[in-house]
Amino acid sequence: MAILVLVPMVLGAAIGLFARYALPGREWMGLFLSPGASAAAAGIVWTIGMLAGVGADALWLWLVCLAAATAVALVLPRLLPKRREQADREYLAELTAAKRA
User: Fold this and answer.
1) Taking a C-beta distance cutoff of 8 angstroms, is the pair 45, 68 a contact?
2) pLDDT in tens, 34-82
3) In angstroms, rounded to a whole number, what is the distance separating the alpha carbons of residues 74 and 76?
4) Count of alpha carbons within 13 Å of 37, Cβ hemisphere only?
């Protein structure tokens, strides 16, 4: 039963991959970041559910795993591009200041 954690992780990766190409901002994220993070979220939720004694046949555990993967897949493209653009601007300013000095 321990290998069953792979099923929600694969489904979570599929959700992350779909979100990567469906949502804007993918040029600022690595190829495997969204699928990997979504798979990790689904796997973590599944493992916590199993450790809590929930059976693999519980529908709500599957739904919570997929909801966690979806939440991660939707949040990453909104947060990371803004932070990346800001970090790039700061780094460019630092490089141009060092060049002038």
Assistant:
1) yes
2) 999 999 999 999 999 999 999 899 999 999 999 999 999 999 888 888 8
3) 6
4) 18
